[in-house]
Structures are given as C-alpha cells and as structure tokens.
TrEMBL record:
PANTHER family according to UniProt: BCPB PROTEIN, THIOREDOXIN-DEPENDENT PEROXIDE REDUCTASE
Keyword Cytoplasm: no
Residues passing through the membrane, by range: none
InterPro entries: Peroxiredoxin_BCP/PrxQ (IPR050924), Redoxin (IPR013740), Thioredoxin-like_sf (IPR036249), Thioredoxin_domain (IPR013766)
Keywords linked to the UniProt accession: Antioxidant, Disulfide bond, Oxidoreductase, Peroxidase, Redox-active center
Name assigned to this protein: Thioredoxin domain-containing protein
Domain Thioredoxin: 23-191
Top-rank taxon, per record: Bacteria
Length: 194
C-alpha cells in the first residue's frame, strides 16, 4: 500500500519529552564533517562567518512518493511520520528564517544519494546533511530509535550559535508547523535584543 509523504494523517501519536535532549544546550559541536546534498562536507562546529544562528532540524527519514513506509506501523511510532512536510515547512520559511538571522540545514542518518533525491524533488534551498555513520549522533548522544534494522534520529531541532548549541526543540510536533515555531523563537530573540 502506498501513501503520500506530503500529507500528515489525522490522529498521529504525539511524542513525549523523555529528557533525551536535556543535556544539549550549551554543548559545543564536535569537529565532525557531514556530507551535504549540495556537495562537499559541512562542519557544524565551524558555521559560516556571516551566519548568526544555524538551524539544524534532524528527522528520521524522508520517503519517496509511492514507496511503502519503512515498517507497517510507521504512523504509530510517535514522531516518525512527517519528515517531508517538515522539510517543506523549512523550505517555505527559508527566506523568513534568513531575515531572522538564521541559516537552515536538515540532518538524517540516510545516505547522501537518498537525501539528494528528496532535496531535488522538494526543491530545498538548503543542504541536507548525512550522518550515515552516526558520528555526530553518537558524539552528541542524540536520541534515536530503531525501525526495520535501521537506527534513525528522533525528530529534534538544534539552534547553533558560534559552534555551540544554544537551544534544542524536542520533541517536535506537529512537524508540518515546526518551521513556524522556530521562526517565532528567533523573532522573540531579535525583539529581546532590539
């Protein structure tokens, strides 16, 4: 049975905050090079000089339209469904986020070729980063779950400033409106410093 990954079905289970990201704020990013869909590698500990904040949204995995979910009960795993709508939300708000002083990147444990298909199909104006070997995931102790023998990231978003995690959104729900939540958070910070 195929499904449309751009549509969130009603009644998805809401993930709960299990404390798995409580240790992240204030943590420096490790010197891990991640392959990027736009070519080359990116190190989150060395953000571009012209970037005030780096927004890195981590997601379990994108799906190809018409492809069956990774496991039959994918929609029953809290926080699993919604990677494509979340990416589209960040795409649609990329300019607003830039005006608010942030640059966006996505992160998953899928390989770069798989990510590239999604980035091109969804017309993402930012790179997706691959942590296929779990180097960043393990170094930061990011929360994961297993499905069909794959170790996938739980949905979370890191706000990075000067190579240090300033804030972490976790859990993220609903994923299709998360970019708006991040934008509101950024604008609140801008207002506080104005």
């Amino acid at each position: 049975m195929s499904h449309d990954p751009t549509i969130l079905p009603p009644g998805l289970p809401v993930p709960v905050d299990d404390g798995a990201c409580a240790h992240l704020p204030g943590t420096p990013l490790p010197p891990v090079a991640l392959a990027a869909t736009q070519g080359g590698t990116v190190r989150l500990d060395q953000p571009p000089a012209d970037v005030d904040r780096l927004i890195v949204y981590a997601y379990p995995r994108t799906a190809v339209p018409g492809e069956a979910p990774l496991v039959a009960d994918w929609d029953l795993i809290p926080g699993a469904r919604g990677c494509t709508p979340e990416s589209c939300g960040f795409r649609d708000h990329a300019d607003d986020l830039r005006v608010a002083g942030a640059t966006v990147m996505g992160l998953s444990t899928q390989d770069t070729e798989y990510q590239r298909e999604a980035a091109e199909r969804l017309h993402l104006p930012f790179p997706l980063l691959s942590d296929a070997d779990h180097a960043l995931t393990d170094a930061l102790r990011l929360p994961t779950f297993d499905a069909a023998g794959e170790r996938l990231l739980k949905r979370l978003t890191l706000v990075i400033r000067d190579g240090v995690i300033e804030h972490c959104f976790y859990p993220v729900f609903p994923p299709d409106r998360h970019a708006e939540q991040v934008l509101t958070w950024l604008r609140d910070r801008q207002s506080a410093t104005s």
